[in-house]
Amino acid sequence: MVTVVNNPPSQGNEEAGSGNGMWGFLGVLLVILAVIALLIFGLPVLRNLLRNSGTPQVNIPSEIDVNVNQPNP
Fold it and tell me: Measured between alpha carbons, how far is residue 43 from residues 37, 39, 48, 51, 59 in Å?
């Protein structure tokens, strides 16, 4: 006669990668959220940087009035 021994799996002492997939799901969710945040916040910033990448325009007046009017005592 054959004897079959069924050993129940150990609890709490699992090998790496033998979980129920929850960490993988959270990792994929975090990557998706990071990509969405990059699209929402990163693309407008990049667009503004590319649009304003030329030299800044500085307006310098042709004349400056340096006369100081002091009241007479």
Answer: 10, 6, 9, 12, 30
The pLDDT mean for the chain works out to 81
Identify how many contiguous H helices and E strands the chain contains and give both numbers. 2, 0
Residues in the chain, overall count: 73
Query: Helix (H, G, I), strand (E, B), or coil: what is residue 72?
Result: coil
Instruction: State the pTM of this model.
Output: 0.45
Give the angle 44-46-49 at the CA atoms, nearest 5°: 110
Q: Which two tokens stand for residue 15?
A: 């090998």
